Amino acid sequence: MTDSVVTRFAPSPTGFLHIGGARTALFNWLYAKKRGGKMLLRIEDTDRERSTEPAIAAILDGLKWLELDWDDDVIYQFSRAARHREVAEQLLACGKAYRCYATAEELAAMREKARAEGRTRLYDGMWRDRDPGEAPGGMKPTIRLKAPQTGETVIEDQVQGRVVWQNENLDDLVLLRGDGNPTYMLAVVVDDHDMGVTHVIRGDDHLINAARQKQIYDALGWDIPNMSHIPLIHGPDGSKLSKRHGALGVDAYRAMGYLPAALRNYLVRLGWSHGDQEIFSTQEMIDAFDLPAIGRSAARFDFAKLENLNGHYIRHAEDGALVAQFESVLDYVPGGAELKAKLNDTTRAQLLRAMPSLKERAKTLIELISGADFIFADRPLQIEPKASALLTPDTRALIGQLRTALEAVTDWRAETTESAMRNFAEQNNLKLGAVAQPLRVALTGRTTSPGIFDVLAVLGREECLARLGDQAAT
User: Fold this and answer.
1) Is 243 a catalytic residue?
2) Is 243 annotated as a binding residue?
3) Span 385-471: which CATH code?
4) Pairing state of beta strands 233-234 and 299-300?
5) Which of 140, 240, 243, 340 is catalytic?
């Protein structure tokens, strides 16, 4: 393949970058990367009422977080309106389009009549061949495409196969509104052509748009890009994806503690498969990805699967990289600012030391943060109710004895503290568990934590003795 492949991701900035959009961006990115081509980014901001700056920022931020880089400058569709108008005028001049003076009332009556008769073609072409001299005074016309009325419009789709529409069922679509603003249909065709887009990869909710856009391409004598319409993502029960199922913004997945690499890996397997392989490095994805391998039926979103995959990525991540991910997510989670204020050279080093045992127990960065809570906890510790119930007078007395035994350890490591505790248990005819749980409660305020000797090593001698002193019977 040559480097002439150009894909594009073209979201509308009317909300966040949702999970379906993220997958579309990923598929475009992978296809371009595999073929040494380009992926362009176009913000389709022609809906001025609903397009917002925060939504544009959220889309750019979401793509950056997912590490899906685009080529060249971002293109804003609205800024190209003059070019879109020029093309509409060009079609008008060569007889491929016409001015339509139908009133809102006439259009409504036409639609009603067509629906009553079970027709999909809603506009009856009343101004298609009429003399503009008959136009009512002072009315601003729309410009409509003079679409073919017989024959077929055909798309050879890489995912859907050959898709055929009967032209008699398709309207003369509006290219330019009465206020002079271009429609989405026209803008998309002109932008894709001018940007040199060779492959359009988008959701199959755009399939009917492909028929209308093909008619515009044909009228202009332009080559149509290669088309691929990918199935939408559904919930686990097969219904349309809702917020309950995971139809959230990419920023929400970040805040839930998912790693970008895990989310990319999960999204690539939604609708595309490569044998039985589930785990893909980015390079493996690029090497293996192709459009015909995308299924035609809707993919089902499964949070449990995403969580398990994320757990795999966390377990296999480098400890230093996880500390950086831990830090970066603090800006997006409740209580994160408070925790961020406690990050310093000491707590970072403790976090790094704790990471091998923390990451074995966590499926998300949120669980990782929760597991690391003991590092950042203020003295005296807040004891969880379940742990508090274990702090009986006898247990407090035992904690005092354990403190004394640990005070004798000068070379403070997991191995030396474990040896001291085993000796203590043996001398006092206790099982190791009877020693470990009081230690855990006194050092972490919880009944569960990483391995207790890892906790001792991470916190260090001084902090451990101080925390044990806080809970010991006085």
Assistant:
1) yes
2) yes
3) 1.10.10.350
4) parallel
5) 243
